[in-house]
């Protein structure tokens, strides 16, 4: 059970909540702050003070006052009108992350929402009631209004939730659980949707998958080193300490660990003096991507614990301030940076694939790793597929955050496009994982030609795992199936990685 209180939530907590069936509970101190904040909203309504989002319209309609008897209708109309998401839904795991992050943000006690609404959100998390939320339609400023509105629809009994691969009406779910849909009171609709939780939720899932992927690139690259008789001197600690990047030092250390005991790798001068960059510069290239991951982790863990709606209730309810914490620029930059870091891991992986299959570069391995060169094509088109994916990633890596289109009659005249950046980062990660699956497929075949009895014990264990999933290439077959099996194997490791 993980206690939510509006601060202190980590990416490792999120791993447990998303992948390991951990549940949430509400911290007592956070509950007290929520109750106090709600009393402030009720006082504002009672005293007929004009405060944005409580008894006014929204966006360009902020100057329109709303009568006390219409504040419920105002919130209902807000959710319905803003639920205009488009396209395929976010993965269910992202929807779950969105629920958790919005709940955590509201528990900070700055939003004026009732405790019963937060208890319902916690119930949804703990009973795995996950909203169906379309991916497209957010500008990433004024919050992720469209996606979060689809989340809020479920609370009021008008949205859809996941049921395996199907979508079912939330009204049916509440009836099944003997619960009534929530009727939103003053400010509650705005509190639910005015935040950055769509981009941050996708960002959290992206980061967890990327961290796992970054570790996987190392053992896969190490197996390619064995298949190509790579030179381990390039990983000598002195080289990397001389440069000073801790992430680079770490990659070099882990590469040596993976290759410990291998009789397939070489020393400089035994076969050649130095390797190509895709082998020799693994610590420098992969290490730089680890630097990206560290930056993104820092920004995500701040945003996961941030109050991102508007207005915020401060000074024990005495002050209500309109601001712009819903603007997703920080996460937009982080996601664009993540895109580049992960795309580069795929880029260098594809270069190692080329070395494994190219008879002019692969140190005597069969052309295209074919069991009968000419009669059988072997891994020839596997490299094509990898090249296609890395090329697509280069397009997706174009920064979403450099774009902005004004909205709401130019009241919201600069937006982050952070949710687009997060979605594109997810696509890059899926592509990169398949490139790595192809490298793993080629590397396992390469070491078989060299002699698996000569592998390092650690990498031999990985080779055995892969051979339980896909057989050796003894004749041409439909390699699409192999790629997908290895992709699934790599993806599952996100659940347990630390």
TrEMBL record:
Protein's cellular compartments: Cytoplasm
Post-translational modification: Contains an active site 4-methylidene-imidazol-5-one (MIO), which is formed autocatalytically by cyclization and dehydration of residues Ala-Ser-Gly.
A matching Pfam family: Lyase_aromatic
UniProt xrefs under InterPro entries: Aromatic_Lyase, Fumarase/histidase_N, HutH, L-Aspartase-like, Phe/His_NH3-lyase_AS
Uppermost EC category: lyase
GO biological process: L-histidine catabolic process to glutamate and formamide; L-histidine catabolic process to glutamate and formate
NCBIfam families found in the cross-reference section: hutH, PRK09367.1
Protein name: Histidine ammonia-lyase
Gene: hutH
């Amino acid at each position: 059970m993980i206690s939510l209180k509006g601060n202190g939530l980590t990416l490792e907590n999120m791993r447990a909540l998303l992948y390991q069936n951990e549940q949430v509970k509400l911290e007592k101190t956070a509950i007290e702050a929520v109750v106090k904040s709600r009393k402030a909203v009720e006082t504002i309504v009672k005293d007929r003070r004009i405060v944005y989002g409580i008894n006014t319209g929204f966006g360009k309609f902020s100057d329109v006052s709303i009568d006390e008897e219409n504040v419920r209708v105002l919130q209902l109309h807000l959710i319905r009108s803003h639920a205009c998401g488009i396209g395929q839904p976010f993965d269910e795991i992202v929807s779950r992350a969105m629920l958790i992050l919005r709940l955590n943000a509201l528990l900070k006690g700055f939003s004026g929402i009732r405790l019963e609404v937060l208890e319902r959100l916690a119930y949804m998390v703990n009973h795995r009631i996950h909203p169906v939320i379309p991916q497209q339609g957010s500008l990433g400023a004024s919050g992720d209004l469209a996606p979060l509105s689809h989340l809020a629809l479920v609370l009021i009994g008008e949205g859809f939730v996941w049921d395996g691969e199907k979508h079912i009406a939330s009204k049916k779910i509440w009836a099944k659980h003997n619960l009534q849909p929530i009727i939103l009171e003053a400010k509650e609709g705005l509190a639910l949707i005015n935040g950055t939780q769509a981009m941050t939720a996708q960002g959290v899932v992206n980061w967890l998958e990327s961290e796992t992927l970054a570790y996987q690139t190392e053992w896969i690259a190490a197996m390619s080193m064995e298949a190509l008789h790579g030179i381990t001197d390039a990983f000598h600690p002195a080289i990397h300490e001389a440069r000073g990047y801790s992430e680079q030092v770490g990659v070099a250390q882990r590469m040596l660990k993976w290759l410990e005991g291998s009789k397939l790798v070489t020393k400089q001068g035994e076969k050649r003096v130095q390797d190509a960059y895709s082998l020799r510069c693994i610590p420098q290239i992969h290490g730089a991507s680890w630097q990206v991951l560290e930056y993104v982790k820092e920004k995500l863990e701040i945003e996961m614990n941030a109050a991102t709606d508007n207005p915020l209730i401060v000074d024990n309810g005495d002050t209500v301030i309109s601001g712009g914490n819903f603007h997703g620029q920080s996460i937009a930059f982080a996601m664009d940076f993540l895109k580049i870091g992960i795309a580069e891991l795929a880029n260098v992986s594809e270069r190692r694939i080329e070395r494994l299959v190219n008879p002019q570069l692969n140190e005597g391995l069969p052309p295209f790793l074919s069991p009968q060169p000419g009669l059988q094509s072997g891994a020839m088109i596997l490299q094509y597929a990898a090249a296609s994916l890395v090329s697509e990633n280069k397009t997706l890596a174009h920064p979403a955050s450099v774009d902005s289109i004004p909205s709401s009659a130019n009241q919201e005249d600069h937006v982050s496009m952070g949710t687009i950046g997060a979605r594109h980062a997810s696509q890059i990660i899926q592509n990169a994982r398949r490139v790595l699956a192809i490298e793993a497929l080629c590397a396992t075949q390469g070491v078989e030609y060299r002699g698996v009895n000569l592998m390092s014990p650690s990498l031999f264990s990985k080779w055995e795992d892969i051979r339980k999933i896909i057989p050796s290439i003894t004749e041409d077959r439909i390699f699409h199936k192999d790629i997908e099996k290895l992709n699934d194997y790599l993806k599952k490791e996100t659940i347990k990685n630390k």
